[in-house]
Amino acid sequence: MALIVWRDRLRASGIHLVISLGIALLAALLVFGLWYPYPYREISGGRELFLIVVVVDVMLGPLITLAVFNRAKPKAELRRDLALVGLIQLAALGYGLWTVFVARPVHLVFEYDRFRVVHAIDIPPELIQQNRSGVEALPLNGPTLLALRPFRDSNEQMEATMAALQGVPLSARPHLWQRYSQASPQVLQAAKPALMLMTRFPTQAALINAAVAQTKLPIEALVYLPLISRQVAWTVLLDPVTAEPLAYLPLDSF
Questions:
Q1: Is residue 111 within 8 Å of 173, Cβ to Cβ?
Q2: Contact 13, 62 (CB under 8 A)
Q3: DSSP 3-state assignment of 198?
Q4: Which of 94, 100, 191, 231 has its CA 20 to 30 A from that of 114?
Q5: Side-chain-side CA neighbours of residue 62 (13 Å)
Q6: Peptide bond before residue 240 is cis, with ω within 30 degrees of 0
């Protein structure tokens, strides 16, 4: 009898696991296809956040089902228990996805001599309300490419610098944003020849060559700038004419 009970429980838990994996796959398509496309799933910690959410949620439901499933229960009680398990699991998944959502990258900003990834949580709500840049502060369809405009005067520069020292990066201040195309000359002026990466990092030649191959241009034609995001630093390879980012590599080129 006990063997039959455990066989039924394992079967129910297995079915629940398959359903949970299917839901996790759909969630992954949303997270990595929209909120954290490459390279943000790596430089913004999206992959780690999502894995924590999924591992907890995928294991939570089937384990509870394993504990509560028993065909000896009245059908109404069994349905109620399984419905409660499903609600608990969906609530946990919803909370986890909300956490991933509010931490998502919203902009890649040229910050005078580097690129910086700005996340939704980085921008103070009061600054969003004061946004007059014409740029959507918190886009829902993935990060947008922006640049910072020149400071109007020394007072504005001092104010922004002091705010940055207090934890609000320049790139997270909407009133400084402008369209990336407006800053293309400044981007190219700040960028350095990509060939310098080979000289600076000779042991990373394979990594550099792999990124260069993605651009379809010779390394002699490319330029680069460093990129910073939270606690990691990468490098962006740029088109030498349009300044558009063409490839990213996990290399600290500061």
A1: no
A2: yes
A3: helix
A4: 100
A5: 18
A6: no
At 104 the three-state DSSP class reads coil
Average pLDDT over residues 18-43: 88
**Under a CB-based contact definition with an 8 Å cutoff, are residues 141 and 34 in contact?**
yes
Confirm if 253 and 235 have CB atoms less than 8 A apart: yes
The amino acid occupying position 221 is A
- The mean pLDDT of the chain is 87
pLDDT for 210 beyond 80: yes
Residue 177 — φ and ψ, nearest 5°?
-75, 150
- The arithmetic mean of pLDDT across residues 16-39, rounded, is 88
CA 165, CA 222: separation in Å to the nearest integer?
33
**pLDDT score of 5:** 59
Q: What is the DSSP pairing of strand 144-148 with strand 115-119?
A: unpaired
Phi, psi angles (nearest 5°) of residue 22: -65, -45
Over its C-alpha atoms, the chain yields an Rg (Å, rounded) of: 24
> pTM for the complete prediction?
0.85
- Domain boundaries along the sequence of the chain: 2-102, 106-185, 191-254
Return the residue matching tokens 């992959």: 47
What's the burial of 178, exposed, middle or buried (CB within 10 Å: 0-12/13-18/19+)? Answer: middle
128, HSE (Cβ side, Cα atoms, 13 Å): 12
Provide the pLDDT confidence category of residue 200 given band limits of 50, 70 and 90: very high
